[in-house]
Amino acid sequence: MPPTPGRDGGASALIRDPAGLASVLHRNIEALRERRMEERANSGLGERVADAITRFAGSMAFVLLHVAIVVAWVVWNTGQFGLKPFDSTFVILATVASVEAIFISTFVLIAQNRAAVEADRRADLDLQINLLAEHEITHLLKITAAIADRLGLAEARSPEISELKRVVIPEAVLERIEEGQKEMDGDS
To answer: How many CB atoms are located within 10 Å of the residue 188 CB?
Structure first.
């Protein structure tokens, strides 16, 4: 359902639809959907084939098909129902299964590599949004503290507020995380 316009027609109004979603969520969901459709449309034939094979190989239909084939193969090649065996040692079955496993694992790796690239892109986007939010929140906190100080509120001079007003340097945070990881690895 499309978002409902605000009374003042402004973009700042947070309007909810009957399903309880804010208009900005509709916009974001639609933007993500369009982006995924665009990426699918721009993917190559090989990627689409790999995706289709991986999807099928990860389904119950694939499992049931293989159970049926193996059962039929075994029944046929054990001479059941008067059928003449063509692979009584099951060497052909083992070879076919091995070759199939090689190809399926390759297609799965292709899909995993693409998923990893997509996850890295999303992580980069999340990081950029978080850094922007941190910057905006720090700026808002400075403004709020200035207003509180002007009104003579004691909270404006709180050491905790002073610490929170400091700009966060992402590189320094990353270095501290890496130092902590090295310390943990050294304890192992």
So the answer is: 4
The span from the CA of 70 to the CA of 34, in Å, is 43
Token digits of residue 112: 């995993």
Beta-bridged to residue 16, according to DSSP, are: 22
CA dist., res. 22 & res. 172, Å (int): 36
**Residue 43, SS3?**
coil
Are residues 104 and 31 located together in one domain of the fold? no
| Whether residue 152 sits in one domain with residue 71 | yes
Same domain flag for 53 and 15: no
Contact between 45 and 98 under an 8 Å Cβ cutoff? The reply is no
Tokens 């063509």 -> residue: 86
Q: How many CA atoms lie within 13 A of 175 on its CB side?
A: 5
Pull the structure tokens for residue 61.
């239909």
d(CA 121, CA 109): 18
Do 48 and 5 belong together in one domain? no
- pLDDT band at residue 63 using 50, 70 and 90 as cut-offs: very high
pLDDT tens-digit series, residues 66-77:
999 999 999 999
- Read off the tokens for 115: 């998923």
Most confident listed range (22-26, 46-50, 92-96, 141-145): 92-96
Residues 54 and 143 grouped into a single domain: yes
**Range of the structural domain that residue 36 is part of:** 1-42
